[in-house]
Amino acid sequence: MAGRDKPDLPAHRSLFRTILAPTVWAVHFLFVYGFSAVWCAKDWGAAGTLSWSITAATLLALALIVGLAVAMWRQWDYMDDNDYIHDLSTDEHRREFLGHAGFMLACLSFVAVVFSTMPAWFAGTCL
Amino acid sequence: MTDLGEGSPRLDSRRRDLEKDQAHVARGTYPPTEESLTRPIDPEEAEAQADRLRAVWDDPPGWRYWSAVNNSEVGVWYSMTAFGFMLIAGALALVMRLQLAVPDNELISADRFNQFFTMHGSAMMFLFAVPMFEAVSILLLPAFLGARDMPFPRLSAYGFWAFLIGGVFVMGSLLFDAAPSSGWFMYPPLSTLDEGLGTDIWLLGLSFIEVASIAAAVELIVGTIKCRPPGMRINLMPLYAWYVLVVGAMILFAFPPLIAGDFLLELQRSLDWPFFDPARGGDPLLWQHLFWIFGHPEVYIVFLPSIAVAAMIVPAAAQRPMVGYNWIVLSAVGTGFLSFGLWVHHMFTTGLPSISLGFFSAASEAVVIPTGIQLFAFVATLLAGRVKMILPMLWIAGALAIFTVGGLTGVMVALAPFDWQAHDTYFIVAHLHYTLFGGMVFPLIGGIYFFYPFIRKRTLSERLGRISFWLTFTGFNIAFLPMHLTGLRGMPRRVYTYPGDVGWDTLNMISTVGAFVVAAGILVFAWDLVRPKGAPMSTRNPWNAGSLMWSHDIPDQFWGVRSIPYVTSRNPLWDQPGIVARMDQGGYYLPDAREGLRETIVTSAIDARPQLVARVTGPAWCTIWAAVFTGGAFIFPTFSWYLPALLSGIAAVACIVWWLWTSTALIPERPMKDVGLGLSLPTYVSGPSAPGWWGVFITMLGDMVAFASLIFGMFFYWTARPDFPPPQAEHAAGGWVVASALLYTASWAATRAARPVQRRGRVPLAQVLLTAGALTATAGAAALVLSVSGLDPTSHVYPAMLYAVAVWTAAHTVAGVVMQLYCLAGTVWGKVLPEYDAPVWNTVLFWHFMLVTALGSAAAIGLLPRLL
Predict the structure, then answer these.
(1) Domain count across chain B
(2) Which of A36, B257, B582, B814 lies 20 to 30 Å from B114 when distance is taken between CA atoms?
(3) Which tops the pLDDT comparison, B738 or B4?
(4) What is this model's ipTM?
(5) Chain B nearest C-alpha distance from A91 (Å)
(6) Is residue B832 part of a domain?
(7) Which residue of A has its CA nearest to B369?
(8) Would you call B362 and A119 a contact, using CB atoms and an 8 Å cutoff?
(9) Contact B440, B124 (CB under 8 A)
(10) What CATH code is carried by the domain that includes residue B785?
(11) B231 touching chain A per CB within 8 A
């Protein structure tokens, strides 16, 4: 089925869906920062446990981001027409543009979440 | 005319989900047919239409010129004012450089030096960088979007007058030797103990300007998503508009924490509520958090608009579309997000746990990825095109070089161990000036050279521009490159003098010389800007650029565009041959102003489908009065004149209500209007199709962020202090808290219920509901205040925090009740009819947020402390 005949759903018109992956990054970031701040302030236990808790949160966030990336990749639908420039005023181009941008944002968010987990392993101390 | 009603073959292309709440929806043909776009136009009729448009959009004559609200006027006033403040702040820097030129200098006193560096930083940030972005965007955005004006012209004017009053007030304090002197980030306890008025001037004056900034941000966001021309879907937006959208959203999330911080700090200064006093359970670090949650994104709020300017210049210089449009959108949005994860890197030396420092260090390094992507996209575009080294491009090239140096030192100071060495030295001063000159000043001046032909219909001097560039560029590097070394040799920032022979003398002298070379460069530019320039240009598109802006009229016309085009490309002037001629002939939408009203087309947020002919507001004095009285409400408390402040606040509200009542959401003479090309649009919509609804939504989003910052404060004290809440502390009265939560919920429910009731025409019942809503809301606020009234806010930070949350919520209730009463009055005096009910929609939307605030405060005051 050619791209222009594919169904165009309200979700495909959602800018919020496109920025969901960085929002996952933001929530993850706030969580790891807040959680370790409280952990350190309230002396909740060994730093090793903290590192593992953060890693668990990271795995959850990464799973969500991968899920979003897949959804956005489908919306981009690159394999269909190898289209990576979306400069026409059509439903298809808008849909693929939002998918493409969302997919790349998911990739960036993936890297950023990995970045904000690394301190748990390389600087995982409350001192 | 093809009707798109029931049974029409093109029914699929409708957007039922966007129209379900509308009394009237678009009818006719959309998108326009090829036939309608090429149909010949009667020149006589076109001339009559043009005359009517001209009459409607013209500026008022004589001294009434100052009541104008056209984006083209307000934008120019705004940017010239911001530029003036920049020159003053720059002059302060020159005096500081003179003072530091030689060791043990006595040119100015230590206190004056403190005032100067404080005002230099504050003015450059709050009176130049952010307002300049907003000013330039107000000026340019409608042209990029082929719109007649911004959606709320009077709001832009209000923002400008507020900015002018606040800026003059804050800057004027320098003349009375009373300027703020605790540094532009106002750290307590220095700022809380400071005895003069300086800190209060800073807190109240700048809060006032921040409110104006948020108003402009709301305007710009709504302008970008609702005022695009038909056909300009989100994937076709000019990159400038993308950046405006991202930066507007960032302002919405960055400024409110600072406003919350200002609120707390001013409460401590005027009422002695000990938020930052450790002896009574407070903590100065909370201010640092709130300030830098604002302060770091602020750097990107300053930087991204300049990149946006570069993103318009680079394709024009390369004469080809931008390479990697998607990548730039990715990097703009990505930078917008990641820049919020950096704030603690200004606090690396405050003794936070190293794991916390690690998160912020990592995020600081991560933000390099999107920032780098956009620079590489520019380089790729230049490589792929045939570059004409036009003058604006020279400034952009200089900007890229300088910004890259600032970025590289940024990577260094983002590493906590390096930062511990460099913190508060001249190395930081050098780093931040490299990022801000490269990320703001150079692109801005380049942008002014690029856009000046659009703004003033004349060109700036090529020769003066090159002289100015080379003076500024070399002077900048002479001034700031040695500062890296001065800093590494241990010179701290913000010292008014230093001893000789510790290895800083020569470096400081070189920096001072460089500073004056920069000043010479900026003055050459300033002269070029204001000098008389003779006849207007003969060509409309001097850079042969592709954006809609360059369809502008010479000589200038105030209508924005003669007719609003149907756009099918990212670079319409390159890809849609004949579009400018057709626009000029009035061959697109809305070529006429038959009713004598200022109108523009409002389209849907994503696909830019026409939804509404918006009647926008015209020249007015009430906006200036509103700004004056709002200014009074902020400025009088500086001198502890609380009664005049209160009266001024009431007068401001009265002006705003008058302004809204007399000029917004007016009942149209006909529900539909033919806008040309076979399309008719409603003249009035309510709810999510209406720009006003979006304005409320976006404002309240920012308001929620401020509220969340207050609640963050409570959690912060809980983690940072062992005695929050103190053992055996008296809590808020539980019964009153529960009563308040119930009353607020009742008020919300009544308001929400009033909307469909009113729409169905049962007006008396709606009036009862609105009255009940206003009464229960007032009672709810009273109950909330009563719940904490037994506590002493000066005794400890815990009761002070409960008070602050209660005061915040009660103040918002005033706004909520005013809105309910506005709707009530509207139903009584025919301003709100069942079919025309936009104010009710906006009030209900406000009350959704109000309910969250009220229940959040009830939980924070009554429930949370008992659980912690």
Answers:
(1) 1
(2) B257
(3) B738
(4) 0.95
(5) 8
(6) yes
(7) A108
(8) yes
(9) no
(10) 1.20.120.80
(11) yes
